[in-house]
Amino acid sequence: MIESGGAAVRSLARALADRDADPVLLFVEGTAGLGKSHLLHGLAALPEAAEAARVWWRCGGDGGPWAREEPWREPALLLVDDVHRADEDELRRLRRVLEALGPGCAAAVAHRPEELRLPGLPLGAPAMAHPYRLTVLTERLAPWDEERVRRAAGEVLGDGASTDEAARALYERTGGVPRAVVDLLALLRERRPAFAGAAAEVAAAGVPARSAELVLSRTCALAPAHRPLVWAAAVLDAPAARDDLIAVAGLGTVPGNEALLRALECAALTEAAEGRYGFAVPVVAEAVRETVPGPVRQDLHRRAAAALSRSQPVAWAAVAGHHRAAGEDRKWLRAVEKAAESAAASGRYQQAITLLEGTLATPGLPPWARARLAPLLARNAVTGLRSDQTVEVLAQIVRDADLPPAVRGELRLDLGLMLCNQMGRFTDGWQVLEVAADELREVRSPLAARAMAALVMPYWPGASLDVHRRWLAKAVAAADDSGDEAMRTAVLANHVGLAMSGADPDAWELVARLPVQSTDPASARQAARGLCNAADSAVWLGFYGRVDGLLAEGRELAARSGAPYTEHSASGTRLLHAWWTGRWAGLARRCEEFVAATADMPFIASDAYIVRGLLALAQGDWGEARSWLSQRGTFGTENLPVPLGATAAGAVVRLLLARQEVAAAADRARAAWAVVADKGVWPWAAELAPWAVEALARAGDTAGAHTMVREFARGLGDGCAPAARAALTWSRAVLAEAEAPAEERPGALSAAADAYREAAAAFAELPRPYSRALAAEGAARCVLAADTLTAKGAEDGAGGGDRAAEPVASAVAELESCAQVFADLGAVWDATRARALLRTRQPARRGRPPGRPSHTDQLSPREAEVAQLASSGLTNREIAATLHLSPRTVEQHIAGAMRKTGALSRRDLAHRLEPDGPS
């Protein structure tokens, strides 16, 4: 079938459909492999050709239609293939046949323009005598575009293999020539293991046999003196200008021009773009290179390196490859260094990393080369985004005893930074950085200040705040001694992080000192890091109004100075900021996209994992919550930065409490609390404290809960940490609610409600709507519980006291508001829990009239709530605890919901409950 026909094809179809229509002669023009024969078969299958006599004629073979002197009277479709193979006699006979075309007849003549005996004259000379009213049209076939190549890959290999990466690689290697695409896809289809859609797999598939045979036969058809020009094109492996081809071939101007003309005439080469020549199917360059004798090939590569070195800008990576292929090792390594420097200067860090990793992994590399290239690799990896091999390569190189001490110290510094910042291996990274600081100090390197500054950052588990402060004093002194402005800025950036983490009131003055207007790229990168450090700390402290400005300025400066790692870390801070400020719309998707984009370095996406887990917990999808909070097994959660680890632990403790696993919750709370206490950065306890206090209190360890509250308060001191102060008030409310004596419980609960309200007001001021709603829910819960106890005491005649209607009504209204806030945010579990508590205080609805069924086809409100939680993965016991029901009642509601929706399982309920799903 014809996939798409132009106007010429449509005209041919109309001629066949009407016996009185003017005859049509269609020339189908296309280079080898573009699908001319395929188009002819498509024309033969046209519905309009069903009643016509279809006559096939393949030129260069035997037979063909007889010559006719009279016009065709019956409808006929003449299909002529490979007219470029016809000799003079056959062309003469063909012209006579075409001259005899009559009304209702059509002919399609396919040819390769590059192989015609007379360029531009498919039917040769003399020109054909066109019959009366004959319409002559041309259909020029073109290579496929990248999207069509992608579709072909999906048809042959399945949609999972038709990735952007694979489609681009297929298109680049085949030039979009359909026959080459189909043949290369056939090679990939036979691969074991199955093709996974990577560009490297496409490169490893080899050269399609038909494409290789065609170009080699055309090359062999050239005179021996002309073949070096085709070899030069194969060595350059990209469309090249005439003078470059001639220079690489080693030919003079006159013989070089002659060789190029002959190569174009026989279609060994083609004009890929104006003034640039290469192969129609780029992958065949590999096949041509393999036929060139080794010494000749080396000479070609040597001349290619020289030619490319004269162009501007110099493609140093390509120059390096040619020097290596020519056996010029020293020139190869110098070119690699220049290529990496050029890539880094334009922000292409990953390209530089890949080139340097491959070079440094070469056996027998001389020590001088390792000493020059390894620091370059480390700088690119630390500034950019690491590859999986970089740490291993650096770890091997620093063990090289022949390295100069200053080089080894610099490499060790970069290795330590990568282990900490990009891999989350804090213990290993800390040890490496300590050694690097000593090595660099001994050789009086300015980088000693950078190593010491790295040890100032408090995010990592382990060392206490006092240890970081001691390193700060050393780093400041070393930076001042160095006289290096970039080193001073690096120390200042980390001083900002340390001061803000500890809620130092002077921290904002340090932020203002960052040289954001510096024209030195190294200083600008460090200033950008300082701004992003400040934004991250502001999120943890609760200064949400300042975060957007800091991030915008920091990201802009990072982009301008070339610091992609800083840009990525800022993206994680944005996710945390959105979580706490209640901007949840699309947040789960953004987290998942960030995780996917950083799949080969999951530690950098740890913020996204935590936020996604917190969302899942609020939504009631507890299985997903536990998975995301544990980083989905990508690395150990014990390696998380302390604030993230405390936040994740707080969420897990809350989850365990909801599941009534109180002892496990208390154990997890104690372990997480110890990490924060050892670090001594108490604002980071904010997301753990309320849940840890509740866990210990519910486990009967009220003394431990009191100790936590005291340590939290003492640790905060006079520090400016609004989020932590609100969390401290919340923790005190939790403790007051949990330990109210039975005989004083109504009054104690009222006091706890006051503390909850105070916490809610503090969160509202930040603002943190989700935390405010949780605290307000706690206040309402205490008021309602106190009222219930008062009422029970009155009923029992125990002098329960007077019941106040106004506080209860206010609590119910507040609870309704909380439920709405939860629902608006998408916190399904919290909204359901709040509504369940509300129902204990709302009057029962009037009973329905006898004999009238209720909710026979639709879910009742209670069934809908139970089904929503069940579809999220909660067990009957967990649902019962949330909704204050018995497990048996929950079981009945689930059964009713499954029957009414037609769900086949609890998980299937999720799809049935969607607005556009089955009802």
From TrEMBL:
Residues 852-917 form the HTH luxR-type domain. Residues 839-849 have a biased composition (Basic residues). CDD domains: LuxR_C_like. Residues 839-862 are annotated as: Disordered. Coiled coil: none annotated. The keyword Transport does not apply. It comes from the Bacteria. InterPro entries: P-loop_NTPase, Sig_transdc_resp-reg_C-effctor, Tscrpt_reg_LuxR_C, WH-like_DNA-bd_sf. Keywords: ATP-binding, Nucleotide-binding. SUPFAM superfamilies: C-terminal effector domain of the bipartite response regulators, P-loop containing nucleoside triphosphate hydrolases. One of its GO terms (molecular function) is ATP binding. This is Helix-turn-helix transcriptional regulator. It comes from Streptomyces californicus.
